[in-house]
Amino acid sequence: MKSIEELNFPSDVKYTDDHEWAKVEGDLVSVGISDYAQDQLGEIVFVEMPEIGDTFGQGDEFGSVESVKAVSEIFLPIGGEIVEVNSELEDAPELVNTNCYDKGWLVKIKPDDLSEMDNLKDQAAYLEMLKG
Amino acid sequence: MRYLPHTRQDIDQMLAVTGHADLNQLFETIPDSAKTKTALTLPEALSEWDLNTEMEELASKNAACGSYTCLMGAGSYDHHIPAIVPYLISRSEFMTAYTPYQPEVSQGTLQGIYEFQTMITALLDMDIATASHYDGGTALAECALIALNKSKKANKIAVSSLIHPAHRQIMKTYLNPSEYEMVEIPADENGLTDVAAFNAMDDIAGVAVQSPNFFGNIEDLGSFRAGADEKKCLLIASFTEALAHGVLKSPGRFGADLVAGEGQSLGMTKSFGGPGLGLLAGTKKLMRNLPGRFVGKTTDSNGQRGYVLTLATREQHIRREKASSNICSNNGLNAMTAAIYMASAGKNGIREIAQLNHDKAVYLKNKLVNAGFKSVFSGPFFNEFVVKAPSGFADKRRELAQKHNLYAGIPLESYYPDMTNHYLFCATETVSRHAMDLLAKEVQ
């Protein structure tokens, strides 16, 4: 595992306490797991995804990420409807390890209330939490 | 892995390490009320000679297949078991109370289970098979749970009323404490599961159909596949006679999502109805939802082939609180038995045995119909079929058992009350033409 300094935390996304990220892209919000989360999990072998059309509230469990050593539930940073899932992860789950903020995104949601984004941590607050 | 009991010397050495004077002191934390205070009431030890006599006397009270002609199936079948099967399976590495899963010491066992899984997927044309379950009934109940857990909305499992009655009872037992409901699909006049009745049902997470069904008739799984697609529910194909797959179109080619069945026919004796062998297979898509264990093939750090338990991060194993099933066990010895049976028969052998079963059953049915029995269903069957017997057959049947060591069919009335005088007959490869001719002559 890497030290916090070696990991990448872009400033254009928001973070949850459970180590997911969310990024507003037009009407939609992309969701993934942070560099810290993928580094902790290790080699990811499977991502269990929700179905398109499923709806969740903020903080709801919407799937799981399975690595060679653990299975971790993933929680939605913002409530809404699943409109897209990253089907590339079916055959290449390791994209979550190598490109967790772009090619390794998990789902795109149509948010119920975009102001829920304000409940999430920005880069500085998330880094502060990680450094404890 | 061998089972070796502790010797007096082993026990003394261990007591010396733990610092206890004797075994009673070691067990002093067990409350007195839970301890047996008097000696066990066991008979005196016998000499080997006397013991053999006693055991033979006890055994002679049973009517075992071999000395009897068995024309009864209904989930437990009298098949020939090649001598290689009991010979190999009685090796002490296999015949142990615990299935050893540690890869460091158990490569032979793990490879055996891996080969078993591979052959089951080939027999059923499915992507993946588990390391086995207790019996066909519990495997089927597990499949029902998978379908119910997978479905976010539907709460019911549709179950053909022509699935083995014992298997339906097990499913009911499994589902009883849950919020899920089991609904039965009635039979139609052809002795097949009524697909129209299934199509009219709603709130269905999965549909379970047995083929050949309890009456021996071969179901059209394709029409249930179509109905399941319409409802977006899972198709579960079940069976009690594994050897039927030697000639039938496989459940995988019908597009079954899950297959559950009894594997007793693959080299196991009937043994008063158990232990059986639960076979469970699924599509790759459902790989992470299957219960129980899988053995996978991998390479070690030196690049050499090795076998290990795999997909162990599935819910039921590690995330217990999320589990849809807590089954982490398998019927190791019987799975090994089936693997040895299938490997010794081979693909062509299984096809030939299956064909022989069918041919003998057709012969028996024709003989019985010519002798005055009534054919009840006209569709295709494998090695079991239903006939309506002429009056007086119940007495004749008892006489056949007593005088001719021949067990002629199973009365269906106890399972389906309106089927008075209906009998389920079975003919396997072990039944001689002589025995079938004798039966026909006796009932004429």
Summarize the structure in short.
The complex is a heterodimer of chains A (132) and B (444). Chain A has helices spanning 35-41, 88-91, 95-98, 123-131; strands at 14-15, 20-25, 28-33, 44-48, 55-56, 61-67, 71-75, 80-85, 107-111.
Description:
The complex is a heterodimer of chains A (132) and B (444). By secondary structure, chain A is an alpha+beta fold. Chain A has 4 helices and 9 strands. Chain A has helices at residues 35-41, 88-91, 95-98, 123-131, and strands at residues 14-15, 20-25, 28-33, 44-48, 55-56, 61-67, 71-75, 80-85, 107-111. In chain A, the strands form 2 sheets. In chain A, strands 1-2-3-9-8-5 form a 6-stranded antiparallel beta sheet. A 3-stranded antiparallel beta sheet of chain A has the order 4-6-7, with no helix packed on it. The longest helix of chain A is centred in the last third of the chain and has 9 residues, at 123-131. Chain B is an alpha/beta fold and 444 residues long. Chain B is built from 12 helices and 15 strands. In chain B, the strands form 4 sheets. Chain B has a 7-stranded mixed beta sheet, sandwiched between helices. Chain B has a 4-stranded antiparallel beta sheet with strand order 11-12-15-14, covered by helices on one side. Chain B has a two-stranded parallel ribbon with strand order 1-13. The longest helix of chain B is centred in the C-terminal third of the chain and has 39 residues, at 332-370. Chain B is globular, with a radius of gyration of 25 Å. Classes of the chains: A alpha+beta (132), B alpha/beta (444). The A-B interface holds A 46, 48, 54, 66-71 and B 152, 288, 313, 315, 318-319.
